[in-house]
Write a structure and sequence with these properties.
Elements: H1 5-13, H2 24-33, H3 40-48, E1 53-54, E2 64-66, H4 71-75, E3 83-85, E4 88-96, E5 102-106, E6 111-114, E7 120-124, H5 127-139, E8 144-145, E9 150-151, H6 155-165, E10 167-168, E11 178-181, E12 185-191, E13 198-204, H7 207-219
Antiparallel strand pairs: 1-2, 2-4, 3-4, 4-5, 5-6, 6-7, 8-13, 9-13, 10-11, 11-12, 12-13
């Protein structure tokens, strides 16, 4: 996936801890030495993103530090043992500033946590999508919002209504998370960090418009 202009500009503003980055040749050699030569998603994450800290202006608690393999780990050729969870192979890929969850990347490139059954809880189908989401949230950092994250009662109705009345922000959206916009609002259907169920959250130029959308969805019994 090619990053949007927004995400590319955002990435260029971020700092990168080089202790957590390595070039393609070095990373390939390490993965091959660990008999993980097939995993292009790890190679891509390590060379393009590991070491970056994703931030949102005026909201440091939302920062995410991407970190896969350290330079020390690679140079010492430390043993890498991927964890088999469900039908995925996973490896720790970073840390959120405040969320008390461990974040993983799968061999398919997905970003996930683990649910209460210790099974993969997929949040994004790629780190690119997570980066796009951070870039958008950083762009609208000064927008208002309804501060709550709502349980979704009828996901099909929510998706149908939002698709018909809003535009999908395709660069941020995948099968797990959908972002929508109109002139005054930006809304997201995402995945809770602790379970594979949907939440809904809305940002707006005015708080009243956020509240109006939420109340309308509650009235229609789309949100709990």
């Amino acid at each position: 996936m090619n990053l949007s202009g927004r995400a590319s500009k955002y990435l260029n503003t971020l700092t990168r801890d080089l202790k957590w980055s390595s070039d393609e040749e070095q990373t390939k050699a390490y993965l091959e030495s660990q008999n993980i030569s097939y995993c292009d998603s790890f190679l891509r994450y390590q060379t393009l993103y590991s070491g970056y800290e994703l931030t949102i202006k005026d909201d440091p608690g939302q920062s995410f530090s991407a970190s896969l393999f350290s330079q020390k780990q690679i140079i010492k050729n430390e043993t890498l043992e991927l964890e088999k969870v469900g039908n995925r192979l996973i490896e720790v890929c970073g840390e959120h500033k405040t969320a008390q969850f461990t974040f993983f990347i799968t061999e398919r490139g997905e970003i996930c946590t683990l649910d209460e059954d210790d099974l993969p809880n997929i949040l994004h189908d790629s780190f690119d999508k997570m980066l796009e989401e951070y870039a958008l949230r950083n762009e609208i950092y000064n927008w208002d919002s309804n501060p709550y994250y709502f349980e979704v009662k009828n996901l099909e109705e929510l998706t149908n209504m939002m698709n018909s009345e809003f535009h999908i922000i395709s660069e941020c959206s995948d099968q797990y998370s959908i972002w929508w916009k109109n002139e005054n609002l930006i809304a997201v259907k995402g995945v809770w960090l602790d379970r594979p169920e949907a939440y809904f959250h809305v940002y707006g130029r005015e708080r009243s418009k956020c509240d109006s959308l939420v109340e309308g969805l509650k009235t229609k019994e789309i949100l709990k």
